[in-house]
Protein: RNA polymerase sigma-54 factor
Amino acid sequence: MKFEQQFSQQQKQTQKLAMTQQLQQSIQILQYNTEDLADFIDNRALENPLLEVVQPTYSANHTKPRKSSGEEMDYLSQIPDNSISLFEHLIDQVHLNYRDTYLRKLVLYLVEYIDLNGFLKISLEEAAEKTGGSAIQLLDALTLIQQLDPAGVGARDLQECLMLQTERDNAAPHLAYVVLEEKFEELVDRKWEKIAKYFDVSLSDVQEIFDYIQNLTPTPGAVYGSTEGLFIIPDLTVKIDDQKIKVSSNRKSMPEIKFQSNYFERMKESQDPEVIKYLKDKQQDYEWLKKTMQQRGDTIFRVGKAIVQHQTEFFLNKERPLKPLTLKDISEELKIHESTVSRAVNGKYLETAFGVFELKSFFSKKIGSETSERSSNDAKHLLQRLVDQEDKAKPLSDQKLTDLMKEKGVDISRRTVAKYRDTLNIAGSSKRKRYD
Structure:
């Protein structure tokens, strides 16, 4: 049996997309939110002496969103004062209120172990071992910390945190502090009959205590945390005039890049080949960045306008209904890739007279049959409305909610109802029951 090996030459033509560095950066620029893009431009300006960045001036409407009623909302009053940290705030109070004694030194030591939420993260036994102070002295030091502002600071766990806040509130319900101290677990587990029997009070009294505790803060120190991310610069604005929707781009809110032509002309006079090549490269870099930013703005505007056209009812109807809409729907309409749509909506915001919304929030899956116009957002709104209207003495079970939603044209399973309920932070029926 002979073994023959034959060789032949063939030509084969294939197409491949070469991802150049500039193409990769163009894709990345589309994905950037406004803050990330500003940082990217600033970094490019540091590398390119021919590129000048002109920062925008933000108008008042970026810091004062409006309520759906059209009234101005006091947005700035909702932002905590983070000019000083929690640690600095506590230190200032210690120096102001307590004399310079050994006990104050222990107080200052413990303050260093209070986390950003206001909780003490070291045990008194460990602190006593490290400082040489006695257990009584460390307990006295902690008591002094727990008398400082904000109420609840210096707590070692959630129970103690709530007790400290209740102790300093003259408006707290009768027995609230004692219930927290002696029956905290039963209160959390909603074993209210046991609590009512133990303290010889009514279930409505226990309900009042529970409602009060719901308004206390589990993280008293968080108010001194960072407020980064609260300031949003919308990419698009939607205005409604006589039931007509107008979409506009907020490009004036973006940094503007300019070419330093005077500097370029002066440098060209040197006639040095290396300098000329350097200037040419930096000029091309400027032109590429200018073009890419323009393309980014155009893409976000086109995608945003298409979304608004699909979700007209959201802007005109006060109930804010959303139609089923997917990335594929927009990509096919605009003849661009789904990944491009995804990059254009993530971290990009649209401003209206009734709030600021991320573009990706306008996408909602279809539920029910293929011909159904119901979206998952509609189902969630209906679920929330049914729970809001239920008899709180006899809350609706998930199965009952499922049946009621089916009667109203939203045919979803009990399991989906439970999932949507968790998404909306709606407790189960047993935990929604009230004893008023």
